[in-house]
Amino acid sequence: QPAKKANGLSFDFKEIEAGVDHTHHVAEGYDAKVLLRWGAPLFPDTPEFDPKSQTPEKQARQFGYNTDFVGYIPIDGSSDHGLLVANHEYTNEELMFSGVGIQDAKDVAFAKMTKDLVDIEMAAHGGAVVEIRRMNGEWQVVKDSKYTRRITAETPMDITGPAAGHDRMKTCADTTGRKVRGMINNCAGGVTPWGTWLSCEENFNGYFWGALSDTHPEAKNYKRYGIGTPAYAWGKFHDRFDLAKEPNEANRFGWVVEIDPFDPTFVPNKRTALGRTKHEGAAGITNSDGRYVIYLGDDERFDYVYKFVTAGKVDMRNRAANFSLLDEGILYVAKYNPDGKGTWLPVVHGQGPLTEANGFKSQADVLIETRRAADLLGATKMDRPEDIEANPQTNRVYVMLTNNTRRKDDQVDAANPRANNAFGHIVEMMPDGGDHASTAFTWEVLVKCGDPSVASVGATFSSETTRNGWFGMPDNCAIDSQGRLWISTDGNNAKATGRADGLWAMETEGEMRGTSKHFFRVPVGAEMCGPFFTPDDETLFLAVQHPGEAEEGAPVSFDNPITRWPDFKDGMPPRPSLLVVTKQGGGKIA
Ligand code: FEO
Ligand code: CA
Ligand code: CA
Ligand code: CA
């Protein structure tokens, strides 16, 4: 358990004021510096960023847009030298391109999108691998690194595991059902003990346009994933994103992708054994018996919490042996019972209702329609499961449930205890006997989020939590090497709360359990992403996603942004950026 100070808290930093303005704020005594921003040249020959002369070719050699997950993979165990892996989740065309229009008028924006602009967007998606080094206390990007890589919506990938090669995965361009181009809407993720990066496709539905007839064999499948209401104009120029022309392409997205960042020629693997959902993240833990267990949230109102348990064991002496681990194992979905106990239900073909009578002829069918399989199993419908992290010191597992304002009074259950849940909550799970492979667990609600001073909200932060310390909409999270929980949020910049999103530290042990403190906040319009610590806890990586994005109904544009963070230069739009936080004079983030 983390060491406690005299006041009973394990966190020492001086809390910041909650609020919202044009820039970011970090706790006193810490530095938060931009390391990489959208458009940063990554290769020695990449030209300087100019938002008005952007091209798809340049974007594919620059840092992409809207990082959600950030991971740090040490080189030779170092906390001062390693590979940064970052997802580029989505794009804000209204802030990237002059004259394209506001976020809410999608039809207007679509009409203005040219093929070049679409191709820039596709190149701004995916992810990046960047070698970084801390010299004299300052983090720097290694510019001529052999590891530097950009992955985009066009990068060739392999499909592996039980759904690979299935007829439902085949398209005109890929008659094998084993090759796909690109990963899209990659939200959070994970890094494995064998040094690979897990990157999770989340809201992939928004990239497909056109429609299938109601009688098409994939019609119900696609409806369950919300496919058919496009948010992007890609289908206008790329047939594979038009369902009428390529009805199976959407089955090839919604997976967890494994990437070896140490080999820039590595073909990323879409690991179908982990299921097809709107994957928020994929944080894992090596179980006491050596098997690897990955916790997975499906970020949708009334969707589920999953875990995947590998069949094989992690082998730290033979790195290559681990590269097939994620193709074989058992996927489970969680059922939370009212008595504080719970069960992991196997999502396995032939078991329970997952049979041909219900349209599942094989495990491939089960995985392609993971959500429908979980519906039939009777899993617990949650309030948008986002990031999940297991604490290796206590084996407790923390599930961020971001919000669900559509839950009605008669849909309330023990694990989702509030109707109209605007601020979300966190569920703590304890695997039976500390065994992450067990199908039994106990659970309790760690905290119901929101403003504790408003009785009707029903928030349950400890009484030691200050007016700055509460938060809503937990999204990503991290556990530092001392076993302490850090939570980043998405949605607090709503006018209702008067505060920006940010990072909060939360006590989980002892008398101060449920006490939260505010460490960092983002500029207006942004969401807080990352967080990720170096093994020595001296550096914290944070991502500021979509700075300047419109709040509901408020038009913003490239030419008239509400902030120009972080450059604050005329003509330069706001730029999503990745930050490094360190303590002034050195030392752990405390
Ligand atoms: Fe991309 Fe679940 O947030
Ligand atoms: Ca996000
Ligand atoms: Ca997220
Ligand atoms: Ca979110």
TrEMBL record:
It comes from the Bacteria. It holds the Pfam family PhoX. Signal peptide: none annotated. PROSITE patterns: TAT (PS51318). This is PhoX family phosphatase. It comes from Microvirga tunisiensis.
